[in-house]
Amino acid sequence: MKLSLTGHQLLAFLEAVQNGSCPNIYDYSDSLFLDESLQFNRESLVHLKNELIAIIEPVPSDWGSDHPGWAIYDANIACLLHSTLVSIPPKVSSSKGFWRFLSALCHEFVQRRYGYSAEDIANLNHFGNMLKESILPRLWLRAELSIDETNKDYCYWLTKLGLSDFWSSFVLRRVYAQSRQLVRALVFYFYLPGSTRFRYCDKVITAGAAVRFLGPRLRLQHALTPFELLDFEDCVALIDLLASELNLQKVT
Known about the structure:
By secondary structure, the protein is mainly alpha-helical.
């Protein structure tokens, strides 16, 4: 299946879109040359594209890309994206070519999420050229790291928690994100329940502010502790210990 774009192909496609034509993305794309079959097809990707547009339709037109109101939309899209791309092989999930293709296919969503105007020149990094700077692979990874496969009722309950800045700044760009158990423990500790607040230096601060204090301490601890070998309960206990050393106290 033709599901890959080079940087030059992506640029050519987006330029055609900006010039007002309706290009067929399959005229620009190449095959991924996979050994295994995929559990999604063209029709499911088109359905995903339409679902993304429908989800963000209520978003006010004056929201910029960093508006806090995006949090609930990002959470829902992460779940939708991950459930659509069922059992995606690592060769695909790590492929810039694939994420360029999907970002181009869903260019209306990507442009709206980043606050593009009709005249703006596309930043290719937003369209899969750099995976950690592109919204679709970031949201997929958010769900991949937080999915709770032991929860038969709803496996994305942790994915739905936390603000967008928490995920982009303090999880997905950090080396300790290699530990899924630590990521799940961070979400659980700081954002369950959703009203969680912390006391620091006699001030009550938000969970997001508390994470900012803990982040540098976690990075230092990662050099000493193999987070990847810890289970969920051990990760929660470690976070609680580091928070107590910083005099961060939950006040929910």
